[in-house]
Design a protein that fits this description.
The protein is an alpha+beta fold. It is built from 18 helices and 16 strands.
Length: 495
């Protein structure tokens, strides 16, 4: 089982720094089912290639899988796992290149942060859907895809093609993004995993797909395959994801249905669920209500319209869902989005299709990188600023800096802030801890109210509060929202 990663970014041997593997050595990494080896078939300043070869022991694989294997008895020992790229290779790739996947490189930080020319080759990849499926999943990510079927036996053409493809990907991407895409899409293309799919698979998917999954046109199909079409797992996953402000969460909200033409879109026989007239499986208790992500965005837009705001800046815009919704409304004559993450801004640019955006819309839009804890003149001059699910990602010790930047320096007429209501977390059966691993805190209603009233009083704003989502009589609403209005603006309106 083999994958090669090549680059021509001079000096090409810097690939060793990015992968944290020295080109002059063969390194071995033990796996529960075999041994992974990293070596460099070529390494010079013009071109460098790193190879990850996974030597699978079929007996150890069976022992590691226990009774969870659905294969027939002999199939557990005689299969393609030692030879074809699969979830086994994805796990090894995730383990061996863990630091590279995180985008960390102390020796070459500038190289880790920028796209480089890459060529990735998989000689034998089990691919449900054939070459077209490989193109369908990889081309939207910026890859040039070369995929060809592998015949069952070249000596007997009449036997036809196998389920395997030889895949070559070429493009300019950050190495970390490329590795995370492979980590997710290898088992998705195989449409199988060698291990039990547990609830932590959702966390793995979100972490690996953070910079690209939300904008992928086939995100639903990718998610469904990655999670093994397990209805109970999907319900548990969406219960945890429904509250996230991240666009990834919204992109993965149910229903997550595969192409109805694909017979494998249905669960295994006997699984709970019903089939409609088109033969498409639906969960027996699929939610009919709109996701909270959508309600939150619609509520924010409704407040902006109510306030009569015409120029709006989204502070912490992520991948641009609110920005895109504002651009669809001509009443908003100037829209800006800013985020500390350049990756998020790149996703926003793709989502908004800046290269194909009509000129009138493009003239109303500005996207730029910025940190909310540092004064920035570009934040000023807007009727309203929105911080939607942002403050909880800021360290408590930096909240005073954020307050000064937004309320003290930028001083828009209005500020809209939304944040999770920590008291509502008890209503999420599968939630253990805070709603997102990057949250630094989550406020109760009393804590949010105290912060908002204090920030308003210190900076000359009046604050009012509104619920977003169903207002539980005991726990309150899932999302809490505050509308800040400058006191001088309030006085002027009352004259």
């Amino acid at each position: 089982m083999l994958i090669t990663i090549s680059t021509t970014a001079r000096p090409a041997t810097d690939l060793g720094f990015l992968l944290h593997k020295h080109p002059d050595r063969v390194q071995e990494f033990g796996q529960s089912y075999g041994v992974a080896r990293v070596f460099y078939p070529e390494a010079d300043e013009e071109r460098c290639t790193a190879a990850l070869m996974l030597d699978v022991d079929p007996v150890r694989l069976v022992r590691s899988r226990g009774r969870s294997t659905p294969d027939y008895a002999l199939g557990q020992y005689v299969n393609d796992r030692p030879y074809a790229a699969s979830s086994l290779l994805a796990v090894a790739l995730g383990d061996v290149f863990r630091t590279a996947r995180a985008g960390r490189c102390a020796a070459r930080p500038e190289l880790a942060a920028r796209p480089i020319p890459l060529e990735i080759t998989l000689p034998a990849l089990p691919c449900r859907g054939g070459p077209e499926a490989a193109r369908r999943f990889f081309e939207p990510l910026g890859w040039t895809v070369e995929a060809g079927t592998v015949p069952l036996d070249e000596r007997f053409p009449r036997w036809g093609d196998s389920r395997y493809v030889r895949l070559t990907l070429r493009g300019e991407l950050r190495l970390a993004d490329a590795l995370n895409q492979l980590y997710v899409l290898l088992p998705v293309l195989d449409d199988s995993k060698h291990y039990w799919i547990a609830s932590d698979e959702v966390d793995k998917l979100i972490r690996a797909g953070e910079s690209w999954l939300a904008a992928h046109p086939d995100r639903s199909l990718i998610t469904r395959r990655y999670l093994g079409r397990r209805r109970a797992l999907e319900r548990a996953a969406f219960a945890r994801l429904a509250e996230l402000g991240d666009d990834v969460a919204e992109a993965l909200e149910p229903p997550v249905e595969e192409d109805p033409a694909d017979p494998a879109a249905r669960d295994d026989p006997g699984a709970p669920g019903t089939s409609d007239a088109a033969g498409e499986e639906t969960a027996p208790d699929a939610p009919s209500r709109r996701p909270l992500n959508v309600l939150r965005r619609e509520t924010v837009i409704g407040v902006l319209e109510e306030l009569g705001a015409r120029t709006v800046i989204d502070l912490g815009c992520g991948s641009g869902q609110l920005v895109g919704a504002l651009l669809e409304r001509p009443a908003f004559t100037r829209v800006a989005g800013t985020d500390v993450s350049t990756q998020a801004l790149a996703v926003a640019a793709r989502r908004l299709r800046l290269d194909r955006m009509p000129e009138r819309s493009r003239e109303r839009l500005e996207l730029f990188q910025g940190a909310l804890t540092y004064t920035d003149d570009r934040f000023a001059g807007y009727d309203a600023a929105v911080l939607m699910e942002v403050v909880e990602h800021v360290d408590p010790s930096r909240l005073d800096a954020l307050e000064h930047v937004v309320f003290g320096a930028a001083r828009p007429r209005h500020v809209i802030v939304t944040t999770p209501n920590a008291e509502y977390n008890v209503r999420y059966e599968f939630l253990d801890g805070m709603r997102h691993p990057d949250h630094r805190f989550e406020w109760t209603r009393a804590e949010f109210r105290a912060w908002a009233l204090g920030a308003g009083e210190r900076n000359g704003y009046r604050a009012e509060f509104r619920p977003v989502g169903e207002d539980d009589p005991e726990a309150g609403p899932p999302t809490q929202l505050a509308v800040f209005t400058r006191v001088d603006e309030t006085v002027r309106e009352g004259e």
